[in-house]
């Protein structure tokens, strides 16, 4: 089956780009269409953090405190019952491994939203926009819900957004740069194995980052085969908003990614 057929089978629209790192080989499906980033935004955040650490601008052992006012709900410290304190590098780990929104907020405070935007511009990712930290996206949801209007957070023209091709370009930069080593490590221990990772056999190492909102399911990552070839893949879907739990769509994301990589390997 082609990638599009996997998406059609579960009733969603899919957007995909796959790129063999170190080569010009690529394939895609609506790869230049705007898509909502959701928690995928934590990847450029972590990369900019790693760059600032390497430049001596931030000390990774500096500590931040997650208080009740910071907790948004969800996973990690965002759902804690009590205040917690951890280092900046542990905030990055939490943001990528368990998609901790509070840890990402605290990291954005130190790294700076404008600096993340500057990184994207430096990489030529002109169609990737970051409106702010997770708390800023949540604020738009609260405002729009209260006003009874469509959610900006679900509209790629009005929230943090990107394209599949620009996300594989970001991944290629992270995998090509020694500064990106910690980001690669944090992505490799992501606890969610139900999307990209599920599409590949156990001998293929997958490092990824998911993003989820009502009707939006994403993941970007790199699949590295035993022969050393690596493939950056970015998959975004829209549809299936009736529930957040749609394992069939999750499996379709992995299957479509695998089909795209198989195409590049053939």
Automatic annotation (TrEMBL):
Pfam families: Beta-lactamase2 (PF13354). GO terms for biological process: beta-lactam antibiotic catabolic process; response to antibiotic. Coiled coil: none annotated. GO terms for molecular function: beta-lactamase activity. Residues 18-237 form the Beta-lactamase class A catalytic domain. It comes from the Bacteria. PANTHER family: BETA-LACTAMASE, BETA-LACTAMASE-TYPE TRANSPEPTIDASE FOLD CONTAINING PROTEIN. This is Beta-lactamase class A. It comes from Amycolatopsis mediterranei (strain S699). The lineage of its organism: Bacteria, Bacillati, Actinomycetota, Actinomycetes, Pseudonocardiales.
